[in-house]
Amino acid sequence: MTTLGSGHDEFDRSTKKRKIEIDLQKTLIVNLPEHLIIEHILPRLPVKSLIRFKTVCKLWLSIISTSEFAQSHLKFSSLNPKFVILSEDHSLDEHYKLFLLNYDENNDTRELIRLNLDQNWVFTNLDVVGSCNGLLCLYLEEETKYGSFCVWNPVTNQCREIKNPNGEAFALDFGFGYASTVDDYKIVALFSPRKHGFGDLYVYSLKLGQWKRIDGLDGFYAALSLDDMTIVINDTLYWPLKNLNDWQKAKCIVGFDLVDEKLKEIPWMNWFNQYKRADFFGMKGCLSLHCHGDQGSDVWVLKQYGDGNSWEKLFSVNLGGMSFLNFTETGKCLVKTSDRLKVIDPSQENPEESQVGVEFSGQIAGTGVYVESFISPFVTES
């Protein structure tokens, strides 16, 4: 990963950071009890620092390399999420770029970091399928060939390539998420021999290492359009409601249960009819909707999961000339002006007047929430 900015500034930051790490190693080894280091300090450190700390001693190498440590570390890193941003510009030699945006909800955006895509990846089209527990699921497609998925941890640079279930089939739409109940990461995708039309729904389990076709779907459900950066709440995968007219006919909102591998329905509410489209996101662990209408947009949250009557409108969003990109867990907005990325409070009267943020003039193709982790894409059934 490389940070945007001058090479000299990057060298100074790297040197200073390395000195801090060396001083920290000396302090940890000399002054603190071992159990405090292992249980309370190491899990709170950044992944890059911990990778270097593996060389301190055999004990640290052994501890940091375990799946138990990865889970412990994830609990703390999840408290400091970032945004992953896919930039697209076909006028440049590099059509696609991936970034991580560090932000602080009190001090706005802090740092924009460029992710180094593997030079061995060959693609003409790139989609970020989803982000979960430090793993990014990407879909790489060549112009004249069928594409493939890869699940990548950009911090540890571990990458697992996943071929399509049928050699001659295109992935029309897709989603990615973690099912905590069964401790498994899954890809949900529609495949078809053509780039348009109906497809067959498949689910890939990282734990089992195989695709499974989901039978019994009628024409309506088979034609559902998933989208990148899907959201998983309570082990159920949801995707943006692009055309509310189709969902009105079905009289329900449909998600995909990653545990039972079945479609799950939430009853349709009449107030949905006033909107044209909606995006799902998570807020404080609850399923939430950002609904777009002619007069602006509103944020709703499902207070009681599975109970359609528990939807509650939290606030309206008026961003003026700024483009909405995503929400944080606490309801702050990631937005873009013509030349900056900002994290703002949508309840502010004049968010356009805020001068904070980081410079960014590229075209945004997708965003998602990301946390650093040691989670490996090479999950296997124990």
UniProtKB/TrEMBL annotation:
Pfam families: F-box, FBA_1. Transmembrane segments: none annotated. Residues 31-69 form the F-box domain. InterPro entries: F-box-assoc_dom_typ1, F-box-assoc_interact_dom, F-box-like_dom_sf, F-box_dom, Gal_Oxase/kelch_b-propeller, SCF_F-box_component. Residues 123-343 form the F-box associated beta-propeller type domain. It comes from the Eukaryota. Coiled coil: none annotated. NCBIfam families: F_box_assoc_1. PANTHER family: BNACNNG10540D PROTEIN (PTHR31672), F-BOX PROTEIN CPR30-LIKE (PTHR31672:SF13). This is F-box domain-containing protein.
